Amino acid sequence: MSHAASPAASDPRNRLIVALDLPSVHEAEAMVDRIGDAATFYKIGYRLAYSGGLALVQRLSKAGFKVFIDLKLHDIGNTVEDGVRALSDLGVTFLTVHAYPQTMRAAVRGRGGDGPTILAVTVLTSYDQADADEAGYALPIADLVALRARQAAEAGIGGIVCSAAEAASVRSAIGPSRLIVTPGIRPAGDDVGDQKRVLTPAAAMEAGIDHIVVGRPITQSADPRAAALAILAEMG
Ligand SMILES: O=C(O)c1cc(=O)[nH]c(=O)n1[C@@H]1O[C@H](COP(=O)(O)O)[C@@H](O)[C@H]1O
């Protein structure tokens, strides 16, 4: 595997997280090599984690990449606390839990003093209002995201996952020092797939987010490196 570049603080590569949602560790490693120095931060989710991807987390970290482990934990408090404690030993930068108050408090306990930054997933970007209604939530999505962001800050969570469309209300709920991380990003004209609350890379940056998460627009492109470079150019 190639080694990660060390971008300057102002370099947009620090703010682009590429979702490695690929079928196997072998294909994920080949993708990292194809993208080369156009990315320095990768996300590993269910698909890879459940097929040998935890070893890849360690290889990526060793090669100098930042890693976001996205398992969206949500269970009874004791199980979440223990799970976060175990994941904290992997040396990742970010890990995710769902933004339920009991879950978030347990995750903060499991993280201890020097673990990874815990990100709380508010309302999935594949949900529109009809999906939230169907799931039994009485609130408009914007209000539910803001409520969960406030609860995350109260629980001591380090960052929020939401749509960039909600960045302003989330920022006022969490203050300047916690992070806003936004999937549901599509360059203008790209296929949105199952995403519903979508913004372009440029619009997300203007909205004041800290990191964007981009998967298929890069990994399913005929030229993943060129796709990543185009997104970086749009991010400024
Ligand atoms: O937690 C996440 O990363 C996440 C939260 C969310 O609300 N929406 C969302 O799409 N994601 C993840 O972000 C990535 C987006 O991938 P693409 O839609 O292919 O760009 C996927 O790996 C999702 O699992």
TrEMBL record:
Alphabetical keyword list: Decarboxylase, Lyase, Pyrimidine biosynthesis
Enzymatic class: lyase
Residues passing through the membrane, by range: none
CDD domains documented for this protein: OMP_decarboxylase_like
Domain Orotidine 5'-phosphate decarboxylase, first and last residues per copy: 15-231
Coiled-coil region(s): none
Pathway(s) of this molecule: Pyrimidine metabolism; UMP biosynthesis via de novo pathway; UMP from orotate: step 2/2
Binding site residues for substrate: 21, 43, 70-79, 125, 186, 195, 215-216
Keyword Lyase in record: yes
Annotated catalytic residues: D70, K72, D75
GO terms of molecular function: orotidine-5'-phosphate decarboxylase activity
Keyword Lyase: yes
The EC number(s) this enzyme carries: 4.1.1.23
GO cellular component: cytosol
HAMAP family: OMPdecase_type1_B
The protein, known as: Orotidine 5'-phosphate decarboxylase
Organism: Methylobacterium bullatum
Name of the gene this protein is made from: pyrF
